[in-house]
Amino acid sequence: MTVIVSQPTLESRVDDHKQRDGCEELVLDGGFVVPATNPSGFEAPQNNFYGNSFRDYYAQTERQKTVEEFYRQQHINQTYDFVKNMREEYAKLDKAVMSIWECCELLNKVVDESDPDLDEPQIQHLLQSAEAIRKDYPDEDWLHLTALIHDLGKVLLLPEFGPLPQWAVVGDTFPLGCAFDESNVHHKYFKENPDSKNPAYATKNGIYQDGCGLENVMISWGHDDYMYLVAKENGTTLPYAGLFIVRFHSFYPLHKHGAYAQLMNEQDKESLKWLHVFNKYDLYSKSKVHVDVEEVKPYYQSLIKKYFPEKLRW
Ligand SMILES: O[C@H]1[C@H](O)[C@@H](O)[C@H](O)[C@@H](O)[C@H]1O
Ligand SMILES: [Fe+2]
Ligand SMILES: [Fe+2]
Predict the structure, then answer these.
(1) Where does Fe cation bind (predicted)?
(2) Distances, alpha carbon 212 to alpha carbons 29, 208, 209, in Å
(3) The pTM is what?
(4) Helix (H) or strand (E) holding 27
(5) Are 114 and 151 in contact (CB under 8 A)?
């Protein structure tokens, strides 16, 4: 499946003279090459199965009310101090010991309230995105596995891992410690965030410097940062771009709108190219047509064996 969707040109905000036209070959990650064109012929669906365009946060549907209420709570409660505490708590990795596949199976129990396009159990989303990207990039096995694991951090919603409320696990992410960019969905709810009253966080860069690198930015806490931490601390051999995708795939203000781009360093800018590739499959593979879990399991287990230890600390 190839998803052909034009991405907004982030470089127009990052770097005025360099246009991203998808025609040049990009060499990243010490040898991984982003192919110049999409390899096969799948067209991205225009609408999700509710009949709305993807990521339409203003459609008049029942589901939208849940989604908007989700963002109200997320924008009020995610503060700089909250994220700092969460990072410390979850860095302990003392919640569980299990394999990647066991975690995939746990996601059978998880439904994401922030997502206007999908209300299926999350294991289907993992397999749908991984299978879609596998068809178009058959040789990039690390990318298939990255897709499989990218949302595993949603286990934070389960009792053994907190449980944390939805607003602390899912939804788009954004930096704390600087002004909230208007490209964040339902931006108006940030008015009620206590950080909005802190003058140190009120300017475009707040406490950060241009080019400081995303790894030095406090990003709202959730499944991205948690899964990044789990993968890294358990010694995964996935390439850097895979870890970057896991860590920043919900950072739509940056990868879709180019906001906060001045905070990136050179390595972030390189990895972002792969995140753009990945994002199409994450978003447009969402479907009511289920992947047969048992059929694809052996393939993904072989990848897990290649890139992860058998048991991980969570
Ligand atoms: O609702 C979705 C969902 O929670 C995804 O897993 C996340 O990555 C997206 O950014 C978010 O908008
Ligand atoms: Fe996600
Ligand atoms: Fe996802």
Answers:
(1) 125, 150-151, 223, 249, 282
(2) 20, 7, 5
(3) 0.90
(4) strand 26-28
(5) no
